[in-house]
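Attaching the record inline, Q. Sequence:
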Amino acid sequence: MTRLWRVVGLVILAFLTVGFYFVQLTDTYSDIYSEAKISDYLEKVWCKTFKNQSKHNKELKTTADSPTVNLTLTHQNFTTNQSIVIYGNKTDEKQCNPVKQLIFAKTHKTGSTTLQNIIFRFGERHRLMFVLPKSGAHIFNLRAHFETSMAELYKHVGNVGFDIFAAHSRWNGSEVSSLVPAGYRFTILRDPVDTFESFFSYMNVDKKVGMDINQFAWTFATLEGVRALDISRGRNRQLYDLGLEEDQMESEEEVMEKIDELDSEFDQVFILEHFEEGLVIFADQLCWPLEDVQSVRLNSRTEEYVSKITKESRDILTDWLWADHILYNHFLKKHKLSVEKYGAQKMIEEVGRLRSLNLDLTAECSETVASDVKKAEKIFKPNHKKIRPVVPQKHKRWCRPYYRTEIAYTKMIRRLNRLTVRSL
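Structure, as predicted:
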């Protein structure tokens, strides 16, 4: 009888021991996979492992026929085998080093504030140096092409190196590149009629001319030639932001020359209507995890301030904005070729993953109680009544960077710049 109780006791002890290790395994598994899918985590670990294979002596088996790595990963109390598909030339060690030098040519009313916020967050997280206006404003002088003399260069401490150019300016590629020589250069475009409509409403052009956008199309956009106020009213604003002069916009030859110049200057041109695809390509080119490009939509208008354009007016405006349309269509075609090169099926999967990340971010962070939105801190409140307020939940500090306004974020980055300079 005593022997029987000993056997029962040993069995119970064995079950308790197995249960203990199972709980440990579950906790470890949960910690690793709570915010990413298994395949995402393994791919990140693979990239890190591959770069350090000589140090850790991991065994990687590849075949010429299949871009696949068979990898055994050990983490604390568990071991897993996973076959990872390599997309692109990820076996090049240099491509697994995140690119940290960036040049962004910001354009009006193209979704550029959301893209800028992604760059601000990345730079803040990595304590990078930003090129900022010495005027103390959040934008450079938009009536003149950018010159290095417009920037705060911190000459009192010697030659300061810069990592990121992202403040709104009028594009001057050679001047910008002199400050961030190795920067990945990119900008963003949008359908020209929709860009014009947004500019027309946001800048209160309707009130200045005393008519809505459809009346404007029939009254002003049917006139021949370039008028003195066309640019200030939003005509071909994307080409203007990217450096083309007003008097060059009536010459198709000069427009094409400018587009060829921009094509040679930029590594990537985002298209707002395909923004998520652009972000996937962007993250891939820069070797950033997709989580680094998740975002909330910033600086968008409430529905009541979006103009309703008739088909006839859209046709008139399309013709009136012909120069911006040539620019837009050129880079839209290039974007589609980039998607094709990246892989259509893979793009669908990655865009789906990015959308899921953004939905999770919004659900986790965005304040939905109207009274709390009104009481939000100033750094989250847009300075324009037509902009839809989007603010983070009050007690989730990790959410805050996603919602900072351009002005507030620029002020914070300026302070971080100064702290970095003082430490040199």
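The chain has 16 helices and seven strands. The first strand starts at residue 68 and ends at 75.

More tomorrow.
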